[in-house]
Amino acid sequence: MKLPKHAELWLAPYLRNRLEHALNRTPAKRLWVALTDHWEPWGGKASEATATARVKAWTDHWPQIAWGAPPDDTGRPPCYTFFYPQEEYHPKTLSALEPMVADGVGDVEVHIHHEHDTAETFTEKIVHYCKQLRYEHNMLRERDGRIIFGFIHGNWALDNSYPDGRLCGVNGEISVLSKLGCYADFTMPSLPSVTQGRIVNEVYWATGSPDRSKSYDRGVRATVGGGRQGELMLVTGPLGIRYRGRVMPRLETGEIAVYDPPTAYRVERWLDLAPRIGEDIFLKLHGHGAREDNARALLGTAGLAPMFRWLRQAADRRGIELRWASAFEMASAVERLTNAAPTANSPLVDVPASTRAL
Question: What angle do CA 140, 324, 105 make, to 5 degrees?
Answer without folding.
Answer: 50
